[in-house]
Structure formats: structure tokens, C-alpha cells
Amino acid sequence: MRFTKPAGWAAAAGLAAAAALHVVWVCSPWPFDDRAEFTRTIGGVSEAEAPSAAATATVAAALGSAAYLVAAQAGLAPRLLPARLGRLGAATVAGVLLLRGGAGLVSSGLADEPTTFTRWDLALYSPLCLALGTLAAYVAKNE
């Protein structure tokens, strides 16, 4: 039995949820009380070093595009690209997510002093990237 559609649905839903969070974060530090706590926890930087609203919106657009590419490759959304380009897009999404997840585990795991960000990176951010990347890779390879 092929699991391409369920894998595509899970990956696209996760990517779309991440995109939606980034859209919220353009205007709000939700679910945190203030911007300083938000940037320290989510980005591992001070409030002064936080990405701009435009950069956050760009990440939201990239994540939304990634969700579409995986969903289309899994046959869950209309294919607007030629098959080879759609497969390459889904594979690129997988590669970026797997690279982010692996690099996050290494860099946060080797941090001299644990921070709020490194703890979250090891517990959630990097494993989530690895899971979504694995699902996207499965979709890219099997559809």
C-alpha cells in the first residue's frame, strides 16, 4: 500500500501550519507575552536582532509554497508545474528541511550553554523539521 497521500497531507499540513504561525508573527508575539520572550524562545536572539516583519513574511510565503509543492506532488492539490519540476520542488523542500533539522540538532546539541532556544530546538524545532523533511522526501520519491 502506498502512503504518498497521507504523507503528503501530513507534510503539507505541518508546513501550512508553520506558514500560518509566521503570518501571525508578523504582527504579534503570540503565544508569548512580549516580543523579547518571543525572539529569545523562537529565534534564539535578542529583540534587537529579531528578523524584520518583511523577513518573517518571506518565510511564511516560502513555507506556504513548500506546502503547496508537497501537496501537489502527492496529488492533493492541482499541479501547476511540469512533473519533473514538481518532483524537484518537493525534493528541494525535503532537502532544506532535513538540512535544517540535522544542523539544528548538531548546533544546539553542541552549544556551550543551553538556552531557551537550544532546548526548544532539540525538543521540537529540529525533530519537526526532520519529520516533515522525511515525509516530503517520501512524497518526492514515490509519486
Describe this structure in words.
This protein has one domain (4-142). Helices cover 76% and strands 0% of the residues. It is built from five helices and no strands. It has helices at residues 4-27, 35-43, 53-73, 83-109, 116-142.
Which descriptors would you attach to this protein?
143 residues; mainly alpha; 5 helices; globular
| Helix/sheet category | mainly alpha
Low-confidence stretches: none
Residues in β-strands, percent: under 5%
How many separate domains make up the residues?
1
Please tally the helical runs, counting DSSP H or I stretches of 4 or more residues.
Answer: 5
Give the termini separation: 13 Å
Mean pLDDT: 94
Major sheet characteristics: none
The H-and-E topology, N to C, reads as HHHHH
* Structure summary, number of beta strands: 0
Query: Taking Cα atoms only, what radius of gyration do you get, to the nearest Å?
Result: 16 Å
List the helices and strands and how they pair.
Elements: H1 4-27, H2 35-43, H3 53-73, H4 83-109, H5 116-142
Helix pairs in contact: 1-3, 1-5, 3-4, 4-5
Quick take:
The chain has helices at 4-27, 35-43, 53-73, 83-109, 116-142.
